[in-house]
Design brief:
alpha/beta; Nitrilase/N-carbamoyl-D-aminoacid amidohydrolase; Rossmann fold; 4-stranded parallel beta sheet; 24 helices; nucleotide-binding; NAD_synthase; NAD; Rossmann-like_a/b/a_fold; ligase
């Protein structure tokens, strides 16, 4: 009797609409799985076309090319003698479904549509797909002619069913279904399904990985069974980084763990597990067995194939392992770095340019690029031929081998300190020292001539000369003069990104990196179209508090001692005149709130869904030891005024790495008006009424 089953799952760095590359990575994963003895291979959600196709799902081309890729998979000898479970969109009776297509030896066994669609936060699956609402119901699906010619089948089962092999029973879940309160694995497990599979398109959020792992382990802790999870990894053309973490669990314990962050395009996990361990685990759970005796059975698709071998008594099986989670600082070091590498190589640019101010935010961005260089050198050292080929193409040298992160950084990373008469020597020195320690190609320039030229045009036209507040000017004049400096820096950043390599006799252009953090974006503490305007921003979804902790991590792990003085300096925009040669302007004084307070406001506004009144009600208890109700009311009102006045800036926010659940990204995550009644008269009156009562 066969009892030891060998199964494989994978994390693939798929790219939306890259059918050629996606097919190649799927084939590689199948080859690896077979070479390790697997009899079943699970891939990520919508892996054939790539998860992030968005409105391209509406196009018939996306469906056509997905079936063309499926045709290649079906007819290939590589997919023989292994059950392959792949993801793609399918049109059934003129309705689009997000599906798993499960096949074996040129025969499609089952097309299983997704039942619970992800439709919160960054997910918009209900825009493109319809959930399958017919529980335990199967229909006939008429195959396209190109598939019929390969399989010899006219129709195949389509719907909510499970696979019954000669030795076990498998049931599929798709991503969101694991997170749903009525997950299919509950009823499937009660109906005798022993192996649950989950193909995911789950993206990285700081401190989220443990939730996914806990859900997988708890799925089999109460019900017994084997749970196999596959996930996409990498940047597939959007703000999200899919963070792998493929895993296999049995009876509530992890037995195989994949990496959360790596530059490997294909990662395959294989585990051999004893089915009798599942059966004996379930045998003593009487409550489970009582429920199982009353469950409505699933339609079973019979498969004349075994995941085990008949003589497998001596086959070693996998033992439980302890899951290792990254710290938030490690996540910031690795996740955005891998995202940047994918964006760089897939955009076919020659590197990055960063306006480096000597402050925490731009320094953190520089450290993430440096971490990327570390990851590239490590991947090459470990024999990753794909990374080596990409690195050689980026630096335009077919013999190059990246071995030293600082040397590689010099080739792909340009930093630029843009001084003005309002800049201090301290920030100039900090930027220069950090650039030396990470190895970037560093430029020092002065923008005063350009600023004077622009302001001079205004003075010639109007006959008026604006002045800073310290010289007797109004707040309007002072803000306009600050914004001119900031916007000149953006223009110069793009000029140098386009022509720096040309001036150095090298081919290609550079991507401009932004460095506004999530808290500043929420508050709107940035100039529209300044250096926050860039091609991409690796820290746009990360809070100031987390960035400070990340800077400390870089001091300790990368030995970047230049960061110590950057950490100790108060954050400043350096846009107002110096006083006695020293910086007089600080960010928190300008904003009228601290970064710590901003993080609290952000989480209450987005995660807790709090408007002004609800936020006030929550904060009078949270801050009762440090603030009176009247002070809380003042703070809440000031935040909502500033947030609403500046919300229009989010419409042009640079595409940023998504890392926080309170991100104000206006693209699709945080959908709000950008023209508010900033008096909030009704809401603030409710607050005032409560303050008076208290």
């Amino acid at each position: 009797m066969g009892r030891a089953v060998t199964v494989a799952t994978c994390a693939l760095n798929q790219w939306a609409l890259d059918f050629e590359g996606n097919l190649e990575r799927i084939f590689r994963s199948i080859d690896i799985a077979k070479s390790k003895g697997a009899r079943y291979r699970l891939g990520p959600e919508l892996e054939i076309c790539g998860y992030g196709c968005s409105d391209h799902y509406y196009e018939s081309d996306t469906l056509l090319h997905s079936f063309q890729v499926l045709e290649k998979l079906l007819e290939s000898p590589a997919t023989q003698d292994i059950i392959c479970d792949v993801g793609m969109p399918v049109l059934h009776r003129n309705v689009r479904y997000n599906c798993r297509v499960i096949f074996l030896n040129k025969k499609i066994l089952l097309i299983r549509p997704k039942i619970s669609l992800a439709n919160t936060g960054n997910y918009r699956e209900l825009r493109w797909f319809t959930p399958w609402s017919k529980a335990r119901h199967v229909e006939e699906y008429f195959l396209p002619r190109i598939i019929q010619e390969v399989t010899g089948q006219e129709t195949v089962p389509f719907g909510d069913a499970v696979l019954a092999t000669t030795d076990t029973c498998l049931g599929a879940e798709i991503c969101e279904e694991l997170w749903a309160p009525n997950s299919p694995h509950i009823e499937m497990g009660l109906d005798g399904v022993e192996i649950f599979t989950n193909s995911s398109g789950s993206h990285h959020v700081l401190r989220k990985a443990h939730a996914r792992v806990d859900l997988v382990n708890s799925a089999t802790a109460k019900n017994g069974g084997i749970y196999i999870l596959a996930n996409q990894k990498g940047c597939d053309g959007d703000r999200l980084y899919y963070d792998g973490c493929a895993m296999i669990s049995m009876n509530g314990e992890t037995v195989a763990q994949g990496s959360q962050f790596s530059l490997d395009d294909v990662e395959v996990l294989v585990a051999t597990l004893d089915l009798e361990d599942v059966r004996s685990y379930r045998a003593e759970i009487s409550s489970r067995n009582l429920a199982a005796s009353k469950v409505t059975p699933y339609p079973r698709v019979k498969v004349n194939f075994a995941l085990s071998c008949p003589d497998d008594v001596a086959v070693p099986t996998c033992m439980p392992i302890q899951w290792r989670h990254h710290s938030p600082e490690e996540e910031i070091s690795l996740g955005p770095a891998c995202w940047l590498w994918d964006y760089l190589r897939r955009s076919k640019q020659a590197g990055f340019l960063l306006p480096l101010s000597g402050g925490i935010d731009s320094s953190a961005t520089a450290c993430i690029v440096y971490s990327m260089c570390h990851q590239v050198c490590l991947a090459v050292k470990n024999g990753n031929a794909d990374v080596l080929a990409d690195a050689r193409r980026i630096v335009n040298d077919e013999t190059y081998i990246p071995e030293d992160p600082r040397e590689f950084c010099k080739r792909v990373f340009t930093t630029c300190y843009m001084a003005s008469e309002n800049s201090s020597q301290d920030t100039c020195n900090r930027a220069k020292l950090l650039a030396e320690q990470i190895g970037s190609y560093h430029i020092n320039l002065n923008i005063d001539a350009a600023v004077k030229a622009v302001v001079g045009i205004f003075s010639v036209v109007t006959g008026r000369s604006p002045r800073f507040s310290v010289y007797g000017g109004s707040s309007r004049e002072s803000l306009a003069l600050q914004n001119v400096q900031a916007r000149i820096r953006m223009v110069l950043a793009y000029l140098f990104a386009q022509l720096t390599l040309w001036a150095r006799g090298m081919p290609g252009g550079l991507l401009v990196l932004g460095s506004a953090n999530v808290d500043e974006s929420l508050r709107g503490y940035l100039t529209k179209y300044d250096c926050s305007s860039a091609d991409i921003n690796p820290i746009g979804g990360i809070s100031k508090t987390d960035l400070k902790n990340f800077i400390q991590y870089c001091i300790e792990n990368f030995q970047l001692t230049a960061l110590r003085s950057i950490m100790s300096a108060p954050p400043t925009a350096e846009l107002e005149p110096l006083v006695d040669g020293q910086v007089a302007q600080t960010d928190e004084a300008d904003m009228g709130m601290t970064y710590a307070e901003l993080s609290v406001y952000g989480k209450l506004r987005k995660v807790a869904k709090a408007g002004p009144y609800s936020m006030f009600c929550k904060l009078i208890n949270m801050w009762k030891e440090i603030c009176t109700p009247r002070e809380v009311a003042s703070k809440v009102k000031h935040f909502f005024r500033m947030y609403s006045v500046n919300r229009h800036k989010m419409t042009t926010l640079t595409p940023s790495y998504h890392a926080e659940n309170y991100s104000p990204d206006d693209n699709r995550f945080d959908l709000r008006p950008f023209l508010y009644n900033t008096s909030w008269s009704w809401q603030f009156r409710c607050i005032d009424k409560q303050v008076k009562a208290l």
